[in-house]
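re: that chain from earlier
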Amino acid sequence: MKRITRRLHAYFISARCMADEKVFRQSRIFVNTVVITFLFAVFYVGNAILFEMPHVAIQIGIYSLLFLSLIFLFKNGVSLAVCGNLFTLLFYTSTVYEIYYTGGLHSGTLPWLAMVPVIGILITSLRSALAWMAVCVITVAVIGVLQQNGFKFQLEINRRYIYTLLITSHSGLVVIVFVVSYVMESAYIRSLYVLDEKNRMIEEEKKKSDELLRNILPEEVVDELRTTGKTTARNYDLVTVMFVDFKDFTIISNNMTPEDLVTAIDHYFEKFDTAIADHDVEKIKTIGDAYLCAAGLPEPNTKNPVEMVDVAIKFLRIVEQLRTERRAAGKVSFDVRIGIHSGPLIAGVVGIRKFAYDIWGDAVNTAARMQQHGDEGRINISGTTYELIKHRFHCIHRGRFEAKNKGLVDMYFVEGRR
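^ sequence. v structure.
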């Protein structure tokens, strides 16, 4: 049965109607109701012929053809509103016709009038349904007044035909109500499925956007943005900042194509990103060939100097590994200088478009100076960071060096873990 119904829908309902869930539901009800009405009309024609009432057979036969023509009009582009109102009109007039021949207010087909506005609201519009409801109420009132004043509705026709008509009419009413209810329930279930699917897609897109946002901003900042719609800059008493810079980058890059250069940098930075993912270290940004990250924010902690030096040691191992791999593949490799300093700074999000989490303060500038005064393949730290990590790492005092805008600064090379 479902297969037949689907074929009917596919044949008579255009793709344009199927694209809109509401129109598709109305179209299915329209097609189903027309087909069922046509089949019952054909059955009535057979009964009229069987009981030797050719004039009734002709009248109902004309109605059956008119009903059937509606779905072909619909298939050929006539709007659902027009076809629906024509069907409702035919349904109304055929019901009044049966009431007239079968006893007026005593007719068993009188309940069919109640279906007229119901069908109207299901396949046309609320305005049309209200109009048809008014017509049906007026019709019942007129029939009642006429019958009260002695008007004879029931004509001398075969009683067996009337009984058969009543039986099939009630059966038809049950079938049509069931079909309409089934289509409505199917549409409801389908709408729930579509809604669930849309909610699932929305949830997936939300997860993607959240993941993307967390790749740009720290999770605590993302939560603050989601909750309040803005973020507040924060002061930190102790944060450890690390600058990583490629040695002789400008000279090497002059001999590389832009595509190879970007690919090479991305290869290194991707490895760095993976390394810090296992630590409480935030990547702040990349500036050309420089990589800037910080530990001890957005959630303050006292372990950040040690953790940052551990990450720096990982970076040197990554660079050494990539040097071996890239040279074996005939590709350019880079050496890096690493500078680290610990101190107070301010962190937050600036701007309203393309915003980014950033850090400001003397600790950032000093870390940059540590990197500039470092050597390739070495981790150069300030005296401040040294005092915080010396119980965990072997370090070599390099002496005091003149740093731009900083004066003389104690610097140390980290040799490794104790």
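The mean pLDDT is 83.
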